[in-house]
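User: Hi! Is it possible to get a structure for several chains at once, not just one? Here's what I have:
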Amino acid sequence: MSQKTALITGVTGQDGAVLADFLIKKGYVVHGMRDYSAVPDQSRIAHLEDLKLHYGDMTDGGNIYRLLETIKPDEIYNLAAMSHVHVSFDVPESTANINAMGPLRILEAMRTMGVQNDMRLYQASSSEMFGRAPAPQNEDTKFEPCSPYGTAKLYAYWSVRNYRDAYGLYAANGILFNHESPLRGEEFVTRKITCAVCEIEAGLRQKIKLGNLNAMRDWGYAQDYMEGAWQILQQDRPDDYVLATGKSYTVRDFVERAFAVIGKQIIWDGEGIQEQGRDKITGDILVEIDPALFRPTEVHALIGDASKAKRILGWQPKISFDDLVADMMQADRIMKPQINVA
Ligand code: G4F
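Assistant: Yes, the chains can be modeled jointly so their relative placement is included. Here is the combined structure:
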């Protein structure tokens, strides 16, 4: 069989780097689209010598068309997004331009080029689209997004389905619940916690400030999820799949597990924005609440039901929540003191 070619948008992010590594190891020719940035961060993909990089922009339809026309990928993984839910409340228009119109531009390019099964699109849909829909959530759950990020992702989700039905394109949605790794950006709560706990252990800071400790998330491991994204595009017919662990934990649980790794037990006292997390032995305040970190509207509980993916793809996550926390902590215990000394 001839070598397959893939194009990954958003290749410099956690998922892009994990997927590029995975596909290169599978023998793909892998092209990655990166944004122009005055201060580029390519740290996650620096080791991938075989990755072919291109400048691109999800708000530039001509650019997207030319990339598809030149590269002619067998598989496109659209991972590029304004991915921070809280920030999307500050920049709703540009979030919609990137997260909703961006995928539409890819679909339009595919339609114009007349590709059918020859070019397959994976769209990174998100559990944030479920918003306030009661858990557990699966492919049949009614979407109730409650952030500009979620509404924009939902537009893209329906565009994928519409272009599939209207023009026979091979376009599929992976509705992925939260997935983390040591490559996760420090602006997301899991990595923010593991970085801070490791800096506290190294004596580089005293405490961490967080927002809503009671939000529940279904946290899996990014490597498992990117393998699932690939499996979604290997099916004969395009379809939409939830990828999730089926288990949910609070932000508070994550904090307690991370501190436990460095031998600290957290005792909570106070309520609401007065709540504090103290070291059980020393009484030191290690966790405080910052009201600025609360979102105007919050997704309270995400618990995914990935039984369709298990049944049809044979997919199931391998890494447990405890192993995820341990893995991220292990990486940051090495990284954090070194970065701060350098
Ligand atoms: O880590 P988060 O920012 O992830 P969030 O909002 O769930 O979104 C992530 O997962 C989605 C899939 O469901 C993706 F589509 C999206 O792109 C992104 O990858 O926040 C998780 C929870 C939230 O409830 C938030 O309110 O943690 C809570 N939280 C509490 N304190 C905090 C903080 N979140 C952040 N980022 N920073 C805090 O200090």
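The longest strand covers residues 120-126. Residues 83, 85-86, 126-128, 177-178, 187-189, 192, 210-212, 215, 217, 251, 293, 295, 298, 302 surround G4F (CB under 6 Å).

User: Great, thank you!
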